[in-house]
Give the backbone structure.
Amino acid sequence: MKGEKIMKKVIFLVLMVLLCSPLATYAASIGDAETQGQFKLGIGIDQEYVFKRDLEFKSSSPTLFPGVGITNIEVKKMYRTMIKGSFGLFDFLDVYVKLGAADYKFKSDIEYLGALVEDFKYNTKWAFAYGGGLKGAYAFKNGLLIGGDLQYLRHKNKIRGLYTDPATGADILSITGKATFQEWQVAPYVGIKKGNFTPYLGAKYSDVRIKAKHDEEGYTLKYKADDNVGAFLGISYKIMEKLKLNFEGRFIDETALSFGLTYKF
């Protein structure tokens, strides 16, 4: 009982530190491994922070000049804050929606005949983000949990970009435009329920697509995920009967952290 009280204080302290840090507005998290229960409603907040995700160039309209290539493409420092509402269709199946806001940075190298000629970066402005999905989970009597998550997320951000000379750092051209970010994800997982704790781990297949329109140049550039398969590891803790805290890390296809707080009605 004493240990339980100490653990609650530790969890509360960690949560307060996260909420007060620059990373408080933490890519598509799995969240709590368990479902809500039939006809039960859960409301929570998901905070996500993506350190890095590699992309590859897909296409351009109009076509790039012969010999020009776009390489070393990265999404960095993505912040996404989402309010999540879940409803239990059955004991083992939830449907949910996510509404919130997202912001991120983007970089790439511009090459000509294999030689680096320009650095390109853009920052986005905070924009409305939305998504939804299904989560299924079956709990055995011994505490073993087997589940899966299917979800989609989307946001369209205004961008301000800059081309620079890699040798001197001098500005070459600034651009504005809009970029549409979309992500699909399928993620099976296993977990084990031990008292108030539910640790879990799994694998996921995810696909990210970005379609960026540059106003000044008239280009529409398309990018896609470089790696589609990743892994995740998380843990949920029941703070009280209807309140749960969740932490999760994601690796391989992206490097990301998230935490969530959910209240079950």
